[in-house]
Design brief:
The protein is mainly alpha-helical and about 70 residues long. It has a domain at about 1-45. The chain has helices at about 5-40, 55-65. The longest helix is centred in the N-terminal third of the chain and has 36 residues, at about 5-40. The radius of gyration is 19 Å and the shape is flat.
């Protein structure tokens, strides 16, 4: 194998991991802000809500990568 290709693969892997960390941090920050607003007394949707959409999307991506 060519050392240049391996170096590029390692660099790309590292960059995508850093990108994922940034995106997850933004999602968690957005969720924390929404939860803080929702926990305020008198808010109509007080408490936790379960959303199946992220699980459906992850399942669809898993199926597409498995059978695609």
């Amino acid at each position: 194998m060519n050392a240049g290709i391996i170096g590029q693969a390692v660099g790309l892997f590292a960059v995508t991991n850093i990108d994922d960390i940034v995106i997850l941090a933004l999602f968690f920050a957005q969720g924390a802000a929404a939860r803080t607003d929702r926990d305020r007394p008198g808010h109509p949707r007080r408490g936790r809500r379960l959303r199946p959409r992220p699980w459906l999307g992850a399942g669809a991506a898993l199926l597409a990568s498995t059978f695609g």
